[in-house]
Structure formats: structure tokens, C-alpha cells
Amino acid sequence: MTETTTLPHLVEDFLTWHFDRRPGTAAMLGSLRHDHTLGDFSATAFESYDREAAEWLRRFERTRTDDLEESVDRDLIVSVLRGDLAESSWPSWRRDPSEYSGAVLYPLFTSFLHRLRPEAELVELAVRRLAEVPALLAAGEANLDPALASPRIVRRAAAQARTGRDFLTRTLPAEVADPALRARVADAAEPAAVAFDRFAAFLDKLADTARGDWRMGEELYSRLLRERQVLGYGAAELHERGRAAYAELEDEIRSLAGTADWHAAMLSLQDDHPPTPAAMRDEYEAETRRARAFLVEHGLVTLPDGEECRVLPSPAFQRPILSVASYMSPPPLTSSRLGHFFVPWPPDDFTPEQVAQQLRTNSRAQLATIAVHEAYPGHHWHLSWLAAQNRPVRKVFRTPYFSEGWALYAEKLLRENGYFSAEHAGDAKRARAQELAHVEARLFRAARIVVDTALHCGDMDVAEAEDFMTTKASLTPGTARGEVSRYCAWPTQAPSYLTGALEIERIRAEFTGTPREFHDRIAGSGALPLGLARRVALGR
Which residues of 453-465 are buried (b: 16+ CB within 10 A; e: fewer)? Predict the structure, then answer.
């Protein structure tokens, strides 16, 4: 394959293959051809995917084009395939039980969240997928290897699996308005719930026998940085960049706080927080509206037609494994521009003290910068704007090194334009608190780089990481535990925020055009590996 004209067809064929192999993911992106099944999770299917991915990689590596946009599409696919093949030596399907529970919970949840079909059709397809749950989870039991699975990762996944019954038998039927259809979902959900009960019990036993290590190791970590993220360096340099960024940001926050003990200043700000989770959601929604109005006033980006961001409590099945805010984009293969900003909600089994800790980590000083990150012009604006563009492969494959980097860049962008000033925050005291929290949020992302690289390269243990995140950032102990558990389960993701933001700032410095033109162009290009984003933004 060397002809320029063959590349768009090759990309189209590749997307068809990818969707057919991963129909649950395809359905979440909005492919109505794939919302009837959860997919094949047998060992044979995973092994077949790796073999076929290797052949696709060979085909794309042989393909050449002089067209910039087509070449970026090709290089994006090459980076994805190289990353997938690198990770085949660290197979999550043998190590992480959430590979299976998530493959059930997220597609079913998003089908009713996005509602791309009439209710009767949604129910029919949900019933079909619910019937597949016992076999899917049984495949998980067969595939998970005690020699590879870490007890820490298994216990984390078990906590999510225990939410399965409640989600399937209560939350899912409650999404259906018609009583007869609701009863049909409830009937179909019970065998699936029994399978989740069995899976959770299996995981409890597996945690006692598992002897694998959650540490990825420097060699694979560095390979993923270079091949999937297209960075020009590995884990050791990333770690040092994180340390340097942390030192610079710590000097800034000390100056802003007016004291060397900036940590005490931040802890005092956490005393002022919403009194309940419901009040926290309300205040996040108000901050989201304020951020959107600021964007309109200053013309920093182009808002896509019909975009809307709803602010909701996080899904119950997400709460045991994610202790911070999150966002779910509009399904990009559709015309929908409705996104969802999920407020971090305490799990049902949290004690009053644990709930209070989570509320402190979402203090009123911190709400503003978090809402900017998740909504405007962070994730929601970016991904609703991207959904309106016309490069399908870039809607499908996104790296957090851009998407999270963009959202952190967005926080600084609004600071530069006066969002945290007294004029916009309401008064000088509130403005100072919000600006301090904004800088601490960047410091927190620098701490993530240091901790994630140190954890997976064997230079820091879990207790040291938790201590680092409570003393070098402003996390409460409970939130720090949840964060570090996430780093153990999701290597290379945590450094993406500040790494991406700093690179986007460097690209902006080279761009000749207005800020709005830059933002529309680079964010509309996708959530590309940073080297590819640079090529699109600068046209070379």
C-alpha cells in the first residue's frame, strides 16, 4: 500500500475492523451497528486481536502520503497499534478484572445516558446484552492469571464488581419510563446480577492467591511514552521534568500564599466546602455556568451548535474506583453535543468522616478550576467541538496526553484572562482563594508525574506515594488513597495532565494567529499525541 488514494480507504477498513472487535467501545462512541452485543472476551479473541493488530501495523507502516491531514491520521493509527502491541506483554485482560466489569457497566450505562434510540429499542438491545453478561464474566474468571494479577488491583476491581447488582437491578430499570419495559429489563437484569455476585466472590478469593506485581517497570513505561504518546523521552526524563515543574510551581504557590507553609494555607481553604454532596453538585453547576459565560464574553473559542453540559453525581459503579471529578463526552459518531460532568460522589458505604474528607477535597476555592477543567473550555468544550469536526479516526482514538493536557491548559488560559480576578470571582478574598487553588491544581499534576513514574519504576512504594500526595499536594488521606490506587492500576495516565499542558503552551508560542484561531484549530484536530498535534496546529 503506497498509493496516496488508498489511505482513506485503509483507514475506513481499519475502523470497521476495530469496531467489530470492540463493539462495546464502538457503541459508546455512537455506532448503532454495534450496540447489540458486548463482544467476545475469550482468550482466543484477545490473542486474535494482537495478531491482527500486528498485520494492520505492517500495512500502515508501508503506506505513504503527501497530504498532511491524511499522514496525521495514519501516524495516529500507527501510534495506537504500536502501543497495543507493546502492552501485549503486559496484558490487562489477564491482570485487571475491571477489563470485564467495565465492559458491562459502561456500555449499558451510556446507552441510557445518551438515548440514541427510542426507549423500546434501547430495552430490546439492553436485554440482549444483559443475556451475555454471565458468559463475559465467566471469561474473565477463566482469563485472569493469579501469577500476573496484583492483589491491590484485584481488590480495587472487586469493589467495583460489588456495585454491579445494584446498578443492574435498580439503576438500569429506573431509566425506563414504560412499566412493562421496565419490568422486562428487571427480569433480564437478575441473572446478570447473579453473575456479578459470583464474579465479586471470585475476585475476593483471587485477591488472596494473586501474586502479580502492579508495577509496570521502566522499560515498558518508557516504550509506551515513546511509541504510543510519541514523546521523545522515557520514564526517567519524565520523572525529572515532573520534579522540575513541581519545584517551579512550589515557588509560585509560596509567593501567592505569602508563606512558605502553603500547605497549611490550602488546608485552611478546605474548611470552606459545600455541606453535602447535593450542595456540592449545585455549586459545581453554578461554576460551570459561570465558566461558559466567561468564554462567550471573551471570545476565546467557538462554541459548537447545540452543545450542552449537564452536571450529575458520578455513576454508582464509578465511585469505588474514582475519587475525583470526571467527564463523559457526547458520542462523537453522532450529531449529539450533550456531555456530562460527573461530580465525585461518595460511595454508599462511606462513613460520615470519609464523606467529609471528600467534600473538603472539593472546597469552594477548588470548585472553580475543577469546573473549568471538566467543562468550559476544558473537556466538554474540547470534545463537543471535536465531535463537530470531520476526521472520524481522531474521534475514536484519543490520548490523555492531549485531552487532559488541554483541560489543564484551559485552567491557565482562563487565569490569564482574569477569570480568577476579583471582578469575575465576586470579591478579592474569593479571588485569592480560587487563584491559590488553581496553582495548587497544577502543583498536584506535577506531583502526579513524580509519583506515577516513581511507583512504576520501583522508586516509591504505595505508602510513600500516599504520603507524598497528602504532604506535597493538598489531598485528604482518603482521596490520596483513591488516587494512588488509580495510579497503580493505570500506569502512564497520571503524568498526562501537566505534560500535555506544557507542550500545548509551547505550541501556542509558535502559532501565528489569534488565540481563538489557535484554540479552534488545535482542539478541533483531535486529542492527538503531542507531536502530531504540533504538526496539525503549525501546518508542518
Answer: bbbbbebbeeeeb
**Which amino acid would we find at residue 4?**
T
Residues 6+ apart with CB under 8 A from 204: 158
- Please state the φ and ψ torsions of residue 426, each to the nearest 5 degrees: 120, -45
Residue 487: closest CA among 99, 221, 171, 192: 221
Q: How far apart are CA 371 and CA 437, in angstroms?
A: 12
Q: Tell me the β-bridge partners of 310.
A: 340
pLDDT recorded at residue 4: 45
Q: Give me the amino acid identity at 359.
A: L
Residue type at 328 in one-letter notation: M
The crossing angle, in degrees rounded to 10, of helices 352-360 and 477-489 is 80
Strand pairing class (326-328; 338-343): antiparallel
Whether omega before 304 lies within 30 degrees of 0, making that bond cis, reads: no
221 CB-near residues (< 8 Å, 6+ apart): 234, 235, 453, 456, 457, 491, 492
Query: CB–CB of 455/492 below 8 Å?
Result: no
What residue ranges of the chain have pLDDT lower than 50? 1-5
Residue 125 CA to residue 35 CA, distance in Å, equals 7
Distances (CA, A) of 425 to 91, 176, 461: 47, 41, 40
What is the pLDDT, as a whole number, of residue 1? 38
Encoded amino acid at 121, one letter = E
Q: Write the CB contacts of 56 (distance below 8 Å, at least 6 apart in sequence).
A: 14, 17, 77, 81
* Spatial contact of 155 and 97, defined as CB atoms under 8 Å apart: no
- Three cell numbers written together for 209: 492467591
What is the total residue count of the chain?
540
The β-bridge partners of 62 are none
Residues 325-379 have pLDDT tens digits of: 999 999 999 999 999 999 999 988 899 999 998 899 899 999 999 999 999 999 9
For residues 210 and 254, what is the distance between their CA atoms, to the nearest angstrom? Answer: 44
